[in-house]
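Q: I'm building a small set of examples for a reading group on sequence design. Run inverse folding on the following structure and report the sequence directly after it, with nothing in between.
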């Protein structure tokens, strides 16, 4: 146990200090006195008496010497010349205040703390009083940041403006700054009364619970005390180098109610808190960290264990620096600074001290010692009445885990192999930073909070995240499709079809161009495929794909859809998309030439082969067919007779065909839209190809940048054509879908649904947002909106209406 020597001009004062300290610490502490002179009652100090007291107090653990003032300091210094060199090495003359220092030191010594920590406690002894009385305040209040000289040292009062107070990043900047000077820096939270804590210990500082609006007292002792305070004042003036930005918004205090966008009759979603904004959909992939194995055996050689720990710390430091660099490159320095705090954990005496003692005094191995030290500090964090600081425990355990993994050679961070929504109990910042951003579609955690560093990182990395979703999340089977709404902090398990607020079902399906597109479509929540562009099978090859080849491919796609519906659009080629093995006459205006159904009818054997393959697949899977570029009812009828022929041939050959095949017509040509009433009795459905419908309605070639402004699917003239189709369909009990690009635009969704579309076929990445747009609209209100849109005269006006902005009158006749 560390011994303590009290040096005072007054023997009575020294005795009184011992009495007080012993009262606080108990009688076991060795408190030796060097008070007064040989003559009774004489005031003064004597180096010989000090040296004798040191000798009495001495043990292998060292001696702390506390002095009152003036010659007491000189006598103590002289006494060092009078003790043996071995003793001198173990003696520390401490500048702490005598009474408070002795009490604090005695308590620390009684707890078995090493000499350095006993001295630290002694130095901090005054801060409770300063915190309580606000000592150091001059007659007129000093401005925040001003250094105030005190007898015991220098102090500084600071108002904290950072939204999350002195959380890890600003605290790390504080500790780094304080640590750069030869000075002991103490911090007390004057607002909460917590402290003092060392300003050179991240853990010490963080556990003061300094929040926005709190005032702290910083005191410094030592040769560079003034410089340290000046630097800290400057740092505080810069808000500890923190962007006071919304990214660090305080944790919401109320739990969100389930998203209002949630369909009333859908399975209840998992409700948590917003982690990072955005919507993501994909299969659940559980990332479970392997259970942390803490080896129990020890080499029996404390030096070797300590060295192993030091090496592990070096390794983890390098790992954290590498992650920091990659985060800095991807998300900027601000987010990367999270890892500065992690680096400081590796140096923090509050962890190293206990770990060192556990190794050298308790004989624990390096992993046990480090784990125990980290758990103890993490428990302190968790016990704090402050969400933000509680979340720091996870940072610390994450880093501790890395160190243990470095010691045992295990992998600390689990990884992802395919696109998925990451599901985990919680993620450390290192886990989050290590996620492959191509594969991590979203993050869902059972625990965690919006202020966790993982959530902050997810926001910076642009990965939608919902946190605090509860234990039920962990029971979701692997691969289950999840729809994650990071803004609402909600996860829908096996999301149901999108329903409007007033309960109207809108099927949201995908546009695909090959079997390879199927997984992404499903991952994004597609309820099927609304447009399979079959051209992929025909282009870039030198001969027609056979019926067998086509059948195999359609079957593969349908199989991949696992029972979801598939609409196959028959071949849409022509001079705009020429096939090398199908020479067509050059056309000066191929979009108005022999393309789509026109070519198919000109070469019916091509269409027949394709329809045979489609019929065979439709016998086994929910497959529908639709024809592109139909302008006249006659074309549709001809196509239907080719279909009838194909069916007949198959049936004659004894090949299975579906009892009924649903057949639709694409509405891409204004003539067909205008004649929808004629088509409606004969078709099963309409699918509106807005890309071509806009091109032909506006006479604005698709892909021609010069007329791109005209080619807007929200132009009222296009909407009027869609309305004609929707009305005709409704009158005959048929359904209408939209498969052009307009269906991938969330802004257009209220109009399309308001017009009567019950199916929207979108590009896979747009599907979550399209679904969200459906869920947030009211179909009746959407109808009213359509009426207003149809009364406008330009696409920009319609866009303004939909964006909720006042519509500006059209300046151009668009
Ligand atoms: C369309 O024209 O809107 C459509 C979906 O077909 P494509 O883009 O393949 O011409
Ligand atoms: Mg088209």
């Amino acid at each position: 146990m560390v011994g303590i020597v009290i040096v005072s001009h007054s023997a009575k004062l020294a005795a009184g200090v011992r009495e007080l300290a012993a009262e606080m610490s108990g009688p076991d502490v060795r408190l030796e006195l060097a008070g007064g002179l040989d003559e009774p009652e004489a005031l003064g100090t004597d180096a010989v008496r000090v040296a004798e007291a040191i000798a009495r107090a001495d043990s292998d653990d060292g001696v702390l010497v506390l002095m009152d003032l003036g010659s007491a300091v000189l006598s103590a210094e002289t006494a060092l010349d009078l003790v043996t060199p071995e003793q001198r090495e173990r003696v520390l003359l401490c500048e702490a205040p005598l009474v408070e220092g002795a009490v604090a030191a005695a308590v620390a010594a009684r707890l078995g703390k090493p000499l350095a920590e006993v001295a630290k406690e002694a130095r901090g002894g005054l801060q409770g009083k300063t915190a309580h009385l606000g000592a150091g305040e001059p007659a007129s209040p000093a401005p925040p940041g001003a250094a105030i000289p005190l007898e015991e040292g220098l102090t500084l009062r600071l108002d904290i403006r950072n939204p999350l107070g002195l959380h890890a990043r600003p605290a790390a900047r504080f500790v780094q700054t304080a640590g750069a000077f030869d000075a002991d820096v103490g911090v007390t939270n004057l607002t909460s009364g917590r402290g003092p804590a060392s300003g050179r210990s991240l853990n010490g500082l963080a556990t003061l619970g300094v929040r926005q609006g709190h005032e702290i007292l910083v005191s410094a002792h030592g040769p560079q005390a003034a410089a340290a305070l000046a630097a800290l004042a400057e740092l505080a003036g810069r808000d500890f180098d923190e962007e006071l930005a919304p990214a660090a918004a305080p944790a919401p205090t109320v739990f969100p109610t389930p998203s209002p966008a949630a369909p009333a009759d859908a399975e209840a979603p998992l409700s948590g808190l917003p982690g990072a904004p955005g919507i993501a959909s994909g299969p659940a992939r559980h990332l479970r960290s392997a259970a942390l194995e803490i080896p129990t055996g020890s080499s029996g050689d404390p030096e070797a264990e300590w060295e192993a720990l030091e090496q592990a710390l070096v390794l983890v430091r390098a790992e954290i620096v590498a992650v920091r660099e990659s985060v800095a490159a991807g998300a900027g320095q601000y987010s990367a600074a999270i890892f500065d705090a992690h680096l400081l954990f590796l140096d923090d005496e509050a962890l190293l001290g206990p770990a060192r003692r556990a190794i050298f005094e308790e004989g624990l191995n390096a992993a046990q010692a480090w784990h125990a030290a980290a758990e103890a500090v993490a428990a302190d964090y968790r016990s704090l009445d402050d969400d933000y600081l509680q979340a720091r425990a996870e940072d610390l355990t994450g880093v501790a885990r890395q160190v243990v993994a470095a010691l045992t050679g295990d992998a600390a961070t689990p990884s992802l192999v395919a696109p998925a929504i990451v599901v985990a109990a919680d993620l450390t910042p290192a886990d989050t930073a290590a996620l492959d951003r191509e594969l991590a579609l979203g993050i869902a955690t059972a625990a965690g909070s919006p202020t966790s560093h993982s959530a902050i990182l997810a926001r910076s990395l642009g990965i939608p995240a919902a946190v605090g979703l509860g234990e039920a999340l962990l029971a979701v089977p692997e691969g289950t499709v999840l729809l994650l709404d990071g803004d609402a902090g909600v996860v829908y398990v096996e999301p149901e079809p999108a329903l409007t607020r007033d309960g109207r079902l809108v099927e949201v399906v995908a546009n695909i161009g090959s079997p390879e597109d199927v997984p992404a479509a499903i991952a994004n929540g597609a309820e099927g495929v609304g447009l399979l562009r079959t051209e992929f099978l025909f282009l870039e090859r030198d001969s027609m794909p056979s019926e067998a080849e086509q059948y195999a491919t359609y079957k593969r796609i349908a199989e991949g859809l696992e029972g979801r519906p598939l609409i196959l659009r028959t071949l849409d080629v022509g001079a705009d998309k020429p096939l090398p093995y199908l020479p067509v006459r050059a056309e000066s205006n191929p979009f108005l030439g022999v393309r789509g159904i026109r070519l198919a009818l000109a070469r019916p054997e091509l269409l027949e082969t394709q329809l045979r393959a489609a019929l065979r697949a439709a016998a086994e899977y929910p497959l529908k067919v639709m024809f592109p570029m139909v302008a006249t009812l006659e074309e549709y009828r001809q196509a239907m007779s080719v279909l009838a022929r194909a069916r007949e041939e198959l049936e004659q050959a004894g090949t299975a065909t579906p009892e009924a095949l649903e057949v639709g017509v694409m509405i891409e040509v204004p003539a067909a839209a205008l004649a929808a009433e004629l088509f409606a009795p004969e078709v099963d459905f309409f699918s509106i190809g807005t890309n071509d419908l806009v091109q032909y309605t506006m006479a604005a070639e698709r892909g021609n940048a010069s007329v791109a402004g005209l080619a807007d699917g929200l132009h009222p003239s296009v909407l009027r054509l869609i309305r004609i189709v929707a009305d005709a369909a409704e009158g005959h009990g048929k359904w209408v879908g939209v498969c052009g690009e307009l269906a991938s635009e969330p802004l257009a969704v209220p109009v399309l649904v308001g017009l009567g579309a019950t199916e929207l076929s979108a590009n896979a990445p747009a599907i979550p947002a399209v679904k969200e747009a459906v869920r947030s609209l009211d179909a009746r209100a959407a109808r009213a909106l359509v009426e207003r849109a149809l009364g406008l005269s330009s696409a920009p006006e319609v866009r303004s209406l939909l964006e909720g902005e006042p519509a500006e009158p059209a300046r151009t006749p668009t």
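The first strand starts at residue 3 and ends at 8.
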